[in-house]
Amino acid sequence: MIRLFVAIDLPPSVRDRLAGMGGGVPNARWVPPEKMHLTLRFIGEVENGLARDIDTALTKLHAPGFDIELDGVGFFGKASAARVLWAGVRRSEPLLRLQTKVEAALWDAGVPAEGRKFSPHVTLARMRRAPAARLQHFVADHAAFLSGPIPVDHITLYSSFRAASGPVYQAEAEYPLDPPG
């Protein structure tokens, strides 16, 4: 069995800027910059045969490259019970089309459809019982965050292994996107 997800990588300069925001929220476990990414689809645990089928399906995926932009920060749920602090992604039709194509490729490979709506974001921290006022203050302080254009010219299939120090991500394969235009 292997645990997989499909993601868009972020340039080191953007990851470093995001990591530089870390701090000021008690009970937050900040994501190290080298682990920051934009998940297109979490797949979960699959047998090795299905992993090969996923790779084959993603190899056949065709979509043009494009730019995305991170815009602001927020959290999922109520401030008093928030579990994830994130950087948002400015609405992007090419990103939504790419995610739909990834979902279709995975379906063709035999992966069940995702039950949740796609909500593009980059996880900054995971929290447990973070003080709501401090969380809201963090969001207000970083509401104007803009990354600038981030070129998306490939997607990556990652495996994820649980370790005592947290998840370990390993790039299994990269799939180039078509030239823009």
Gist of the model:
It contains 4 helices and 10 strands. The chain has 181 residues and is of the alpha+beta class.
Would you identify the regions where 5 or more consecutive residues have pLDDT less than 50? none
Order of helices and strands: EHEEHEEEHEHEEE
Number of structural domains:
1
What integer value in Å does the Rg equal?
17 Å
Q: Whole-Å distance between the termini? A: 39 Å
Fraction of helical residues: 25-40%
Beta-strand percent range: 25-35%
> What is the CATH class?
Alpha Beta
CATH architecture name: Alpha-Beta Complex
Number of strands: 10
Major β-sheet profile: 4 strands, antiparallel
CATH homology superfamily: Cyclic phosphodiesterase
Q: What fold name stands as the CATH topology?
A: Cyclic Phosphodiesterase, Chain: A
